[in-house]
């Protein structure tokens, strides 16, 4: 999944080595717990929110329904969140959020590749509007 994500980022002019911070929803997993357990996610949320408030990223990309539910609320439907900007308020700042399928989902169903590409292009264009120093690659 990581190499796949690197290809996605490169396609829109981003890189985990220079201008992307990758963060995981679950920071640690207590013995006998599942990473998807709501209690585990709730325990990690304050730490994740603190990281985001310190980094103040111009945008977040949430990969997969678990990340979307964890940060945007479990009552949100993943398919309704995809394809349009969402917003997350942390420490008094609204951060634009884009939701798309995870690399693991796409590896299981290659038909999702086109949907991810659409999402990434929209995210790239939105990021270009937000940041004058970001130059999307010419395609």
Structure characterization notes:
The chain contains 6 helices and 3 strands. The relative contact order is 0.16. It has a 3-stranded mixed sheet. It is globular. The chain has 139 residues and is α+β, with helices and mostly antiparallel strands. The longest helix is centred in the middle third of the chain and has 18 residues, at 38-55.
Short characterization:
This protein is α+β, with helices and mostly antiparallel strands. The chain is built from six helices and three strands; from the N terminus they run H-H-E-H-H-E-E-H-H.
Features:
alpha+beta; single chain; three-stranded mixed sheet; 6 helices; globular; 139 residues
List the helices and strands and how they pair.
Blueprint (H helix, E strand, L loop, with lengths): L1 H10 L26 H18 L4 E4 L1 H8 L5 H4 L4 E5 L2 E8 L2 H6 L4 H18 L9
Parallel strand pairs: 1-3
Antiparallel strand pairs: 2-3
Number of helices: 6
Report the end-to-end length measured between terminal Cα atoms: 24 Å
User: What shape does the CA trace take?
Assistant: globular
Q: Helices and strands: which structural class?
A: alpha+beta
- Secondary structure: helix percent: 40-55%
Q: What is the beta-strand fraction? A: 5-15%
**Overall average pLDDT:** 84
